[in-house]
Specification:
This protein is α/β, with parallel strands linked by helices and 205 residues long. It is built from 5 helices and 5 strands, in the order H-E-H-E-H-E-H-E-E-H. Helix 2 links the parallel strand 1 and strand 2. The N and C termini lie far apart (58 Å).
């Protein structure tokens, strides 16, 4: 015996399928939005430039230090924002980009496309942070964390320079840094950092 669905039954099944599809899509989008807007962990940066750092504090302008996990896709947006800052305020600061290289990682492990993006920004010093020594010294735990110190070694800004994970565009962090570099007191000195953890090993990434 052949069983045929009536038009009403078929319509109900299509309606149910549509409702389930919309619900699943909405849930997925909500999860993506939650992830994009979830800031990484942070620790307060040292209020004064830490002793023993391989990164050289400038004695005649501000120093900016951006910490990067070389395999964090979210950090591409942070490098894009850094490029904008350098383009407008490069003469007012000495910019550094510090790439994590876990102890025991292979040669050039940290030299990903993010590394190539960083070295293409004019005037930026790019260095490897073997074993995360500099990250620990500056208390950086999330890729994209950006610090600005005065020429006297005083912390001026500590935070992220994107408004969400992987999203470039106007944001509170970039605005605060630009105010610092233009000689104005920013309305805030800390912002959330949106990126991956830099406290990982080569095997974990």
């Amino acid at each position: 015996m052949t069983f045929h669905l009536g038009s009403t039954c078929r319509g109900f099944l299509w309606l149910a399928f549509g409702v389930l599809w919309v619900a699943a899509t909405g849930t997925g989008l909500a999860m993506l939005a939650h992830y994009a807007n979830s800031a990484g962990k942070t620790q307060p940066a040292p209020s004064h430039w830490p002793m023993g750092s391989r990164i050289q504090l400038s004695d005649d302008r501000a120093s900016l230090v951006l910490f990067v996990h070389p395999r964090c896709p979210c950090t591409r947006a942070s490098l894009g924002e850094l490029e904008k800052i350098v383009a407008h305020y490069g003469a007012a600061m000495e910019p550094w980009v510090v790439f994590l290289k876990p102890a025991g990682a292979g040669n050039n492990w940290e030299q990903t496309d993010l590394w190539r993006t960083a070295i293409a920004i004019p005037g930026v010093h790019v260095i490897s942070d073997v074993g995360g020594a500099e990250a620990r010294r500056f208390h950086a735990v999330t890729s994209g964390q950006t610090l600005v110190y005065s020429d006297r070694g005083e912390l001026l800004f500590d935070g992220g320079i994107t408004y969400a994970r992987g999203h470039a565009g106007d944001n509170a962090g970039r605005t605060a840094i630009e105010m610092c570099l233009s000689g104005h007191a920013p309305g805030y000195r800390e912002t959330p950092v949106f990126g991956c953890s830099i406290a990982v090993t080569a095997e974990e990434k």
